[in-house]
Specification:
The protein has about 270 residues and is an all-alpha fold. The protein has one domain. Helix 6 crosses helix 9 and helix 7 runs antiparallel to helix 9. The longest helix has about 35 residues. It starts with a helix and ends with a helix.
Length: about 270
């Protein structure tokens, strides 16, 4: 039956392609005709090669714009922007359903348990999987407030070179800086809180027992063998995901940023 369905789909696709191709060609011809009538003559082929170095030119231009501002203003503007991003990201996650209710950062069951989840639900035991998922995300929500002090500390320690590289860098340059400079300290802060939260969950203890044996049998990835470590890692991933989102938003909408310096410099380098 499956083979028949696949064959039927392929046959149907083979009959539909010519008609689609014809209508697309007609549309393309009409668009080209309209472009020739309404647009000034241009030489696309001649100008295309000149556009190739655009990324490096953009970076150079951004750097030259930034150099017009004093070192103090450069660092000050970035500190304003990153403090805002950090506070917004942390506050958004450090509340009930901050992780659980956010599809971008919700912590799923470890892969080894995801495989069993469907089977549990078939036997009416889905509640156990749901309870464990909720507990993991609640643990992350309890731990993430610890990040604020570390993130602000990293902002204060930022060098002039760091600031300039971040301002003129990609949309997640600051997030990369934070991950590099705070990830290890964040893990040590998160783990005790996660462990305390999960100590109340009997399923977590059972998971660790099962996963330890699973690693030896090649059924469980070693990095997922301890639920505390798994939740800590996922909590940090979620934090940096939201930091990157906040950073990208400030770059795209500098006038919504807090602080006049931030608005001034990020507006100047927005291309």
């Amino acid at each position: 039956m499956l083979k028949k369905s696949l064959i039927a789909s392929l046959v149907f696709a083979s009959f539909s392609l010519p008609a689609n191709a014809l209508s697309l060609n007609d549309l393309k011809a009409k668009l080209n005709e309209a472009a020739q009538q309404n647009a000034a003559p241009a030489e696309p082929a001649a100008t295309t090669p000149a556009a190739a170095p655009a990324p490096s030119n953009t970076t150079t231009s951004a750097a030259s714009v930034v150099s017009q501002f004093s070192t103090k203003d450069q660092v000050g503007s970035l500190r304003q922007a990153l403090t805002q991003a950090a506070e917004t990201a942390v506050s958004g996650l450090a509340k009930e359903n901050g992780f659980l209710g956010n599809d971008k950062v919700r912590i799923p069951l470890p892969e080894s348990l995801q495989k069993a989840d469907g089977m549990l639900r078939k036997f009416g035991m889905g509640k156990y999987a749901d309870d464990l998922t909720t507990s993991m995300n609640r643990a992350a929500e309890a731990a993430v407030p610890e990040a604020k002090t570390l993130l602000v500390g990293a902002i204060k320690k930022m060098s002039v070179t760091d600031a300039r590289d971040i301002i003129t860098g990609p949309s997640d340059a600051a997030t990369q800086y934070f991950r590099k400079n705070t990830e290890e300290a964040l893990a040590s802060k998160f783990q005790p809180i996660v462990a305390k939260s999960m100590a109340k969950v009997k399923l977590a203890e059972k998971y660790d027992q099962f996963a330890g044996q699973g690693v030896q049998l090649g059924l469980v990835d070693a990095k997922d063998a301890n639920l505390k470590d798994y939740i800590t890692r996922k909590a940090m991933d979620g934090l940096f995901t939201m930091m990157a989102e906040q950073e990208k938003n400030i770059r795209a909408n500098p006038m919504q940023a807090a602080g006049d310096l931030t608005k001034k410099i990020f507006s100047a380098i927005k291309f």
